[in-house]
Amino acid sequence: MHEVSLMQEAVRLALESAQAAGAQHIHRLALRVGALSGAVPDALRFAFPLVCAGTIAQGATLDIESVPAAGWCGYCQAEYRCEDYLSECPRCRQISAELRRGTELELAAVEVS
Ligand SMILES: [Zn+2]
After folding, report:
1. Is the pLDDT of residue 1 over 90?
2. pTM of the model
């Protein structure tokens, strides 16, 4: 499952920043997951406790913020909601391959003490 390695990477980054801050525990992790990131939020939630076991993040809560995909139309100079990499501008009907949001998979916040 590809989400396990994504989660391992996110938790590794969180552990690094906790260590840099001299923290003893990680209480909460927040991830921003784009609609087109290829990661399934439920699978990330499933992987989270497995990846955290035995680390200072054990027992931490995971928040997932879903980011809808947004395309960019160069003609209208405007952003719009889209569902795929290639999308049609709802105003001028031009096809655009430019995404502004939706592919991110990033650590948004880490709460430590
Ligand atoms: Zn347009």
Report:
1. no
2. 0.86
